[in-house]
Amino acid sequence: MAPSGLLVTGASFAAFRGMHWGLQLLPTPRSAAQDRWKWRNSCVSLVHSLLTGPGALLGLLLYPQMAADLIHGHPPWALVLVAISVGYFLADGADMLWNQSLGQAWELLCHHLVVVSCLSTAILSNHYVGFAVVSLLLELNSICLSLRKLLLLSRQAPSLAFSVASWSTLATLALFRLVPLGWLSLWLIRQHHQVPPALVVLGGTGLVTVGTLSVIQGVRILVSDVLRSQPHSPLPGHKETRTCSDGEPVLRDDPTLSLKD
User: Are the CB atoms for 123 and 82 separated by under 8 Å?
Assistant: First the structure.
C-alpha cells in the first residue's frame, strides 16, 4: 500500500501546485488586488478543506470501525484521503516558502511539518489510518477559517457574512478541532502500550503543537472579531485600528474598511 499511497501523495502535490499556478491566470477581485497571493493561497486551502473535512466526516459515519480501531480498521479509500491531505500540506508549504519569508511563515510551516510527519506514518505503514482520518475532521473548521480569510481579504468586514463566518469559525474550532484533538490525546495516553514509543512521541508532539496553535488562533479571532468589535462611540474623525487574527491591521473609518500589510 505504501507505493500507491506515495503515488497519490505525489499526484496531490502536483495538483495543488498546479492549482496555485492556475489561479494566477484568473482575475483577482479588485478589493483583494493588494493581497493576490493570500487570496490564491486561501482559495486553494478552501478546496483542500472541502475535500478532506467532509470526506473524513462522511467516512467515519459510513465506516465507524475506523473510530473503533484507530490502528488497523480502515477501508482502502481512507488512505487515499490521507495521502491527498499530505500532498496538499507539502504543496502549501512550498507555496509559502516561495512567496513569504521564513519569519512570516514559520508558524504555519511548523504546523505543516508536524501534520505531514504524523499523516505520513499512516501512508508508509498502512496503519493508524483511522487516527489520521479523525484528525482530518479539523479541516471542517479550516473551511470556516478560509471563508473568513477570503471575506477579510475582499474587505467584507464588518458585514453579516463576516459575522456568520467568525462565529462559525469559533463554533467549529471547538467542535471539530478541540474535541477531536482531545479525544485523540486521550486515546494515545490510554493505548500507549500498543504504539511504538517513537510514534507516541511523534503523535503527542503533533497533537500538542496543533492544539496549541488552534487555541491561539481561536483566542485571536475571539479578540479581533468579537471583543474588539463591540459598539462604542469613537471621537469625531478618529480611525479605530485593530489587529486581525492573521496579524493584519484593520483601519475602520465608518463605513469603509481597508487592509494593509
Answer: yes
